[in-house]
Design a protein that fits this description.
232 residues; alpha+beta; single chain; disordered C terminus
């Protein structure tokens, strides 16, 4: 019998990934993609930006840890030169860890209010239909309302090539989910964008509630940043 495929390995980019995913209902890759597409509201966009900084500092910690492991494999002569390299690598790894811890605190400053809001959110929030979700997601990538010069027919054309009927646009406008830049003539194309309410509704509607509650214990920061690095 053919063996079952192995489950996909979850990509981890920072110590706070699980808390972000539990609070938002989206995996890290989805959050970063939504940030790039302009789907997120200001608070969640700031969270993703801070998380990206944390991911960069975590990469620095991993780099120096691997370098330290390489220096201790026995591939190098055990002499004063090796001791100097090890000392320098330990100091660099300590500095990288301090930078990571500072970045983690910056993430927590944005994440904790989102966690509190998610915990108090009632289930009767506005629900979007599948068609509305698709329309808002397409508009988030860039869209314009055009009027055909001959027929006078108006249609929204998105950057992905999706066309949205004018009646659908008007309905989304009426409920405050999208807005047009009327300073542009409609025959040349009026930009259409999600409002803050539209971003929030789209983000919430595409949320997948976590099946288990992730504990909110703070990450371990190791050596206190106030402790000065000591060179031997």
């Amino acid at each position: 019998m053919p063996s079952e495929p192995a489950p996909a390995t979850r990509r981890v980019v920072s110590p706070l990934d699980q808390r972000l995913e539990a609070a938002t209902g989206h995996d890290i890759d989805t959050l970063w993609a939504y940030r790039n597409r302009g789907v997120l509201d200001e608070q969640h966009a700031l969270l993703v930006d801070r998380h990206r900084e944390l991911a960069k500092t975590q990469t620095g910690v991993i780099f120096y840890l691997r370098l330290l492991n390489r220096l201790s494999t026995g591939a190098f002569d055990v002499d004063s030169t090796l001791f100097t390299r090890i000392d320098r690598t330990v100091d660099q790894m300590r500095e990288a860890a301090h930078a990571r811890d500072a970045a983690a605190r910056a993430v927590l400053a944005v994440l904790e209010p989102i966690e509190a809001a998610a915990a108090s959110t009632t289930p009767d929030a506005q629900q979007l239909s599948t068609d509305d979700q698709a329309a808002l997601l397409a508009i988030a990538g860039g869209a314009k309302l055009y009027e055909h010069l001959l027929t006078g027919r108006m249609t929204v054309t998105t950057a992905s090539g999706t066309r949205i009927p004018h009646a659908e646009l008007r309905r989304l406008e009426d409920v405050g989910l999208v807005a047009r830049d009327t300073s542009h003539p409609v025959h040349a194309g009026q930009p259409v964008e999600l409002t803050d309410a539209g971003r929030a509704a789209l983000f919430a509607s595409r949320r997948t509630p976590p099946t288990t509650q992730t504990p909110k214990a703070p990450i371990r920061t190791g050596t206190s940043p106030s402790t000065p690095a000591q060179r031997r």
